[in-house]
Amino acid sequence: MRRTPGVLDLKRSTGADVARARDEGVEVHKVRAQRMCGSSRQYVAGELSLRLGQLQAVATEEGVGEVARLRYEAETVPLAALGSVVIRALGLADCLCWDSLGCGDALTFGRQAAIGADLLDFGVCARLVDEEIECD
Question: Is residue 4 part of a domain?
Answer without folding.
Answer: no
